Every structure is written in structure tokens, then in C-alpha cells.
Here is the input.
Amino acid sequence: MIELKPALQTLAVAFTFCAVSPVLSKDIAPVLFQCDMDQHPVICGALMTALQSKALERAVELSNEPANSDALQTDQNAVLTIRYQEESRTEDRLSGRLVWLDQEGRRVDGPVLELTIMDSNLSALDLSPYARTLVDVSDLPL
Here is the structure.
């Protein structure tokens, strides 16, 4: 048997964990993100990217759901179902929130976050920071 010094043992354990973790993550239940891609394609894409960055060890799957449906469509394969709910939108202003189901199946409404541009109209470049901030302030159980 090979005997390692304590510092090398720690490195060996860390290396093993890093090397094995990606294989194990494929068996972890995904997060389901519901968003109306027909009505909100740019913000849905920005939120999808932000969620993928936040939930590194889980896959995030996109489900195109109509905006007029308030009900979260649960998926038994998903560990968490999240939905974007737009509160209002104009050419220079956007406000919305994320909603999700907690462990007991109760609906949780995240905080409403508003983005207003004073000197121009909203663009796709404005939505990426908005989406990252919305995901961060929502305190999702990821």
C-alpha cells in the first residue's frame, strides 16, 4: 500500500472528488425552468443562462409555458420547478419575479425586480445583468 503524507492525502482526496463529481452529476435530478418563449424570448434566454450558472451541478431544462398560466406545471423528474412571471413591460422598463414550489409543494413568490432604462429602450444587453440579479436575489433552493 502506498503511504501518502497528510498534505498529499488531502490533494488526492480533492482530486478524486473533482474527477468523480462530473460523472455523478448526470444522475442528479434537473431543474425545470418554465418561461413563455413566444412572449419573452430574450429574457427567457437570459434567465436560462443565469440559472445554469447558479445551478452548476444540475441540468436546467427549459419548458415553453404560456404566460397566461399562473399554475406551475410540476415535473416529477425535476428537483425544482421555477417559472418567470412578468409583472409589467414597456420599451424602457421591465419588472418580473421568479416563482417556484418549495419542498412541501407550496408556491413561493420571489421578490419583484424592476429594470428601467432612462435614456434608451431596453436591449438584450440590458437583460443579462437583470437576469443574473433576479436569480441571485430570489434565493432559490439550488
